[in-house]
Write a structure and sequence with these properties.
Blueprint lengths: L1 E3 L2 E5 L4 E5 L15 E12 L5 E11 L7 E6 L10 H9 L15 H29 L13 H8 L3 H11 L8
């Protein structure tokens, strides 16, 4: 699975088609590093804030290396791997902006779903921090320190952007990492 930030959305009546941006033809296999070529699309449901749900067609790419030949979904960063809700809603729950006791919460996910997201995040916290720290250090210019010693990369991302979860997941999955489900 690869998480992409540059994609095109086209409405096809009964659902939306998510296509990797043609100008961003730079997707590589996280297993072997070979370029990916378009293979097909697969359906995926996405639940949004307000209780609406819709189907998306997610592009899949196949590794061009004949020795690897792995198939990878090109998941847009508006989704979280293995979750049905939009990433902005999950980020709001993790940040404490969306709570079960909120009076405006009637259209939001149920309390048990929000608790599962918090549990999922806490059970993956050290794994996420490790992956993000590794990618952050590899991407930094030689001789520079990307974050303060002892500082959390996730906290640095949280302070710099409202889309911190999408950025962290891109770092993790695009470098070949994964998270545990709970």
């Amino acid at each position: 699975m690869i998480i992409i930030s540059e994609y095109l959305v086209s409405d096809k009546g009964d659902g939306e088609v998510i296509t990797a941006c043609p100008c961003a033809g730079k997707y590589f296999c996280p297993v072997c590093g070979a370029p990916l070529v378009h293979r097909d699309w697969k359906p995926r449901i996405m639940k949004r804030d307000g209780g609406t749900a819709g189907w998306l067609l997610i592009e899949r790419g196949q590794c061009s290396n004949k020795g690897c030949h792995k198939l990878h979904s090109m998941l847009p960063d508006i989704l979280v791997p293995y979750k049905h809700y939009a990433s902005d809603l999950i980020t709001g729950v993790l940040d404490g902006d969306v709570r079960p006791e909120d009076p405006m919460n009637e259209e939001k996910p149920c309390d048990a779903t929000m608790r599962r997201w918090n549990h999922w995040f806490l059970s993956n916290l050290f794994r996420m921090e490790g992956y993000c720290r590794q990618v952050w250090h590899l991407a930094a210019a030689p001789g520079t320190e990307p974050v303060q010693p002892g500082a959390s990369v996730l906290e640095t991302l949280r302070e710099s952007s409202g889309r911190w979860l999408a950025a962290a997941l891109r770092m993790i999955y695009n470098s070949g990492g994964s998270l545990v489900s709970s």
